[in-house]
Amino acid sequence: MAAPIGQPRIRLPSQIRAGEVIEIRTLITHIMETGQRRDQAGAVVPRDIIRRFEAKFEGELVFAMDLAPAISANPYIAFQFMAEKPGRFEFTWTNDAGESRSVTQELRLS
Fold first, then answer.
1. What residues have CB less than 8 Å from 14, skipping those under 6 apart?
2. Residue 61 to residues 34, 55, 57, 74: CA-CA distances in angstroms?
């Protein structure tokens, strides 16, 4: 059974001007089990990783990343985005079992 996808955290800059390139930072709680470790009884612990991250702005995909077992637990992902207008981001993390966690965050310009 896959570990539940934890609570994500998103950080956008507090002051954003139109045309500015910003850094968006995300962190999600997840064990990221590689499938190469054994438990105390010697059985292989099944692989369980976040395998896909997507960021959409106003419904349009602006960043996507496929993750691999080499990524550490609680993956931190940062990417740049040119803020041209206010709108809504949707961030989605999907694990090996096909379960996903999505959160939305408003982008506001100052």
1. none
2. 28, 6, 6, 23
DSSP code at position 58 = T
pTM for this entry: 0.91
- The tens digit of pLDDT for each residue in 64-95 reads 999 998 889 999 999 999 999 999 999 999 99
- How much is the CA Rg of the chain, to the nearest whole Å? 16
Q: What pLDDT is attached to residue 78?
A: 98
Tokens 């850094």 sit on residue: 23
CB 9 within 8 A of CB 26: yes
- Going from the C-alpha of 83 to that of each of 23, 26, 34, 46, 72, the distances in angstroms are 10, 17, 36, 40, 29
For residue 83, count other CB atoms closer than 10 A to its CB: 20
Q: Can you give the pLDDT at residue 86?
A: 97
Integer angstrom CA distances of residue 79 from 7, 12, 35, 63, 109: 19, 11, 28, 8, 18
